[in-house]
């Protein structure tokens, strides 16, 4: 699978498989994989990474870091080796940085470039070129970087970094780990103290990993807010990193096992950082049988194996406060809710409208086509579940539209497993951005 514009769309039908059973291991965490490459590229010496996610988004980050001077190689056993250039040592890229479909690559790399005296042009695919970049342009302009971008603040854009940059204190206007990380990464090569105030906590991989690489970073909690302080002109020390499995990828198989009658599945090595694991708590609240076994720590992150068994789910009102800890998991939660008993309400999800697609409208359209019942609101969906009956599925000649969004494609693949007639998806190429072996793992569980 490749989302390269040169290859034609790949439609595919996902049909009810019978019970799912067996043991699988999902690929490495996407957020941690991006950050391993970026921080490794800024350390002096060799960083070694095992379990790196080899999806298109992460490979776009690797290519960009190479364009800016890092030496990054994959060894035959799958270990990645990164020789960094040192903080302040990024080189002027000779060509535009192609970010593909990846918001994380774009926003975090904009932070890195902003405090180096280099100029970079960022380009991306049709989905990424619609996504808002003003949220990083604003704080990075405050440090002194300059931008040439369209009125709407979208890609393609050119960023002229500055060194020395001005250290800032920035209060996040949106709950976004990407914006937080962009400001912190810019702070690495900025003399003085950079502070980010986070009114709503988001995934904390940047903080954990910056500390792990030896940056002087501290986090204080005050009046329910997180205040993150980073001392600049850092010297990062190379690390040996084991990337835990991605909970956002495990989510699809957790929901599939809950929905398909008779299923009993073990998903090994799932990262359970509390800023990421919100979905599993919500599914348990709905009555889902998800057991954590062999809880341990991998690469400084909590990890466990998840045993998931088919369960009758009940609709609930999902607390909007958990949204940041499961922000990428709502599309597949909507699928779970579509088969629950009673009504599930979700609110506070405006951010879903600016992901790879507008995930509220895309899921509303896709679930309608598959026969689910719900209402779309400004900031969420209300879903009326079937009470455990399979969804009808898509009819002859009808295909759900994935809008270049891997999570829409994978969520509707799960809906197909839990349907009577199967679900046809217009294009499964986007799945390769975050989960290249998704279909192979699904087939292995279906026996
Ligand atoms: O920092 C990260 O690695 C990510 C942050 C989130 O985006 P936002 O910062 O836009 O919420 C998430 O949706 C994305 O998949 C990965
Ligand atoms: C939103 C996502 O990723 P990104 O912002 O990196 O494109 C995602 O993986 O669901």
Automatic annotation (TrEMBL):
Region annotation Disordered: where it falls in the sequence: 1-27
Reaction(s) catalysed by this chain's protein: 3-phosphoshikimate + phosphoenolpyruvate = 5-O-(1-carboxyvinyl)-3-phosphoshikimate + phosphate
Alphabetical UniProt keywords: Amino-acid biosynthesis, Aromatic amino acid biosynthesis, Cytoplasm, Transferase
InterPro entries xrefs: Enolpyruvate_Tfrase_dom (IPR001986), Enolpyruvate_Tfrase_sf (IPR036968), EPSP_synthase (IPR006264), EPSP_synthase_CS (IPR023193), RNA3'P_cycl/enolpyr_Trfase_a/b (IPR013792)
GO BP term (any one): chorismate biosynthetic process
Chief location: cytoplasm
Residues binding phosphoenolpyruvate, per UniProt: 30, 103, 131, 178, 359, 407
Regions of compositional bias (Pro residues) in chain numbering: 1-11
Active site (record annotation): 328
Enzyme category, top tier: transferase
The protein's Enzyme Commission number: 2.5.1.19
Binding positions (3-phosphoshikimate): 30-31, 35, 176, 178, 328, 355
Similarity remark: Belongs to the EPSP synthase family.
Subunit structure: Monomer.
Protein name: 3-phosphoshikimate 1-carboxyvinyltransferase
Organism: Alteraurantiacibacter aquimixticola
Lineage, opening ranks: Bacteria, Pseudomonadati, Pseudomonadota, Alphaproteobacteria, Sphingomonadales
Name of encoding gene: aroA
């Amino acid at each position: 699978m490749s989302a390269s514009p040169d290859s034609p769309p790949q439609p595919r039908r996902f049909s009810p498989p019978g019970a799912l059973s067996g043991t699988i291991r999902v690929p490495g965490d996407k957020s941690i994989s991006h950050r391993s490459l970026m921080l490794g590229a800024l350390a002096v010496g060799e960083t070694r990474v095992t379990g790196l996610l080899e999806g298109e988004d992460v490979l776009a980050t690797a290519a960009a870091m190479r364009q800016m001077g890092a030496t990054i190689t994959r060894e035959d056993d799958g270990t990645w080796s990164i020789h960094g250039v040192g903080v302040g040592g990024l080189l002027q890229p000779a060509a535009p940085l192609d970010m593909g479909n990846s918001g994380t690559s774009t926003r975090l790399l904009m932070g890195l470039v902003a405090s180096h005296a280099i100029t970079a042009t960022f380009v991306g695919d049709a989905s990424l070129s619609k996504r808002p970049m003003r949220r990083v342009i604003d704080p990075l302009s405050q440090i002194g970087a300059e931008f040439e971008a369209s009125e709407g603040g979208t890609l393609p854009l050119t960023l002229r970094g500055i060194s020395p940059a001005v250290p800032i204190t920035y209060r996040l206007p949106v709950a976004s780990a990407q914006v937080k990380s962009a400001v912190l990464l810019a702070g690495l090569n900025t003399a003085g103290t950079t502070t980010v105030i986070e009114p709503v906590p988001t995934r904390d991989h940047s903080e954990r990993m910056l500390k792990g690489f030896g940056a002087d970073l501290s986090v204080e909690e005050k009046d329910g807010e997180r205040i993150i302080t980073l001392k600049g002109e850092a010297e990062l020390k190379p690390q040996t990193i084991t990337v835990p499995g991605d909970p956002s990828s495990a989510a699809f198989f957790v929901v599939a096992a809950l929905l398909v009658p008779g299923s009993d599945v073990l998903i090994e090595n799932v990262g359970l950082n509390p800023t990421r694991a919100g979905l599993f708590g919500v599914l348990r609240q709905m009555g889902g049988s998800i057991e954590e076994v062999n809880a341990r720590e991998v690469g400084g992150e909590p990890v466990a194996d998840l045993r998931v068994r088919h369960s009758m789910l009940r609709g609930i009102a999902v607390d909007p406060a958990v949204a940041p800890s499961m922000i990428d998991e709502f599309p597949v939660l909507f699928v779970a809710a579509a088969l629950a008993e009673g009504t599930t309400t979700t609110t506070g999800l405006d951010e879903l409208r600016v992901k790879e697609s507008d995930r509220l409208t895309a899921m509303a359209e896709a679930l309608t086509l598959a026969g689910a019942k719900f209402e779309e609101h400004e900031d969420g969906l209300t879903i009326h579940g079937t009470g455990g009956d399979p969804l009808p599925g898509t009819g002859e000649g009808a295909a759900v539209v994935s809008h270049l969004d891997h999570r829409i494609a994978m969520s509707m693949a799960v809906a197909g497993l839990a349907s009577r007639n199967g679900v046809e998806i217009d294009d499964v190429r986007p799945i390769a951005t975050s989960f290249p072996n998704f279909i192979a793992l699904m087939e292995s569980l279906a026996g």
